[in-house]
Amino acid sequence: MYDKDDIKAMLDSMSVSDVLRIMSQVCYEKAESLRANWQDPETAREWEKVGRAVGKIKVKTELY
Question: For residue 50, what are the CA distances in angstroms to 11, 12, 28, 39, 64?
Fold first, then answer.
């Protein structure tokens, strides 16, 4: 399991934008897995919403 220090180390080695891009991608992959393997479209939609929200934050970080 990862802890706060692991996340800090990741942020030190990558830009915030890169971390958010990866998080968004993972959310979409999670949604795809839920649809394909668990037949759970409702939870998949929630993961897609999170992926979109993280993607929007990523775009905003690139503006500053």
Answer: 20, 24, 9, 19, 22
